Amino acid sequence: MRKLFSNPRTAQILLTVGVLEFFGPILRDIGETHLLNPTWVGHARFHLMWLLVFMALSGVANLVLIWRWGDVRSMYVAWAWQACNVLGFWGAAALVGQYDGLVIDPDFHLTILGLNENVLVFILLAFLSLLSFVAVRGVERG
User: Fold this and answer.
1) In this predicted model, what pLDDT tens digit does every residue of 56-96 receive, in sequence order?
2) How far apart are CA 14 and CA 132, in angstroms?
C-alpha cells in the first residue's frame, strides 16, 4: 500500500478524478433549473455564468498542474485548489440559514442511498481529497 501511495502516477490519477468537481456543475447547472431559470434576475444568472467559466478554467489549470508540470509542488497546488472548492460547498451549506438558501431542491435533485445527490457527491469528493493528499504526501516522502 505504501508503494502505491508513493507513486506519482497514483497521485496524478486521484487528482485528475478530483478535477471532475470543476466540470460537473457546468453540465448540471446550465439549464432551466439554474442558469436559464426565468425566475432568476439577470444579475444572478451573470454571477452563475461567471462562476461556471471560472470553474471550467480552474479545471483546465488543474490538469496543467497535474500533468504538464506534474512535480510535487504543482500537485499540492492542484490539491489545495480542489480542497478549496470542496470546502466552499460545505461552507455554503453551513451558512445556508444566513442567506435563505437551500442545499436541496426536491424538484430537481435526486436522492441516492438516502442522501441528496449534491451531499453524496461532496462527501465522496471530501474523501477523494483526503486520499489525494495522502498520495501527494507519499510522493513527496518518496
Assistant:
1) 999 999 999 999 998 999 999 999 999 999 999 999 999 99
2) 6
> Which residues touch 4 (CB under 8 Å, ≥6 apart)?
10
13 grid coordinates: 490519477
Tell me which residue of 78, 98, 40 sits closest to 49, measured CA to CA: 40
Q: State which amino acid sits at residue 107.
A: D
What predicted TM-score, i.e. pTM, was given to this entire model? 0.89
**Amino acid letter for position 114:** G
| Residues facing residue 111 across a β-bridge | 116
Could you give the CA distance from residue 111 to residue 119 in angstroms, rounded to a whole number? 9
The pLDDT of residue 134 is above 90: yes
Residue 5: exposure state from Cβ atoms within 10 A (0-12, 13-18, ≥19): middle
| Cell matching residue 31 | 439549464
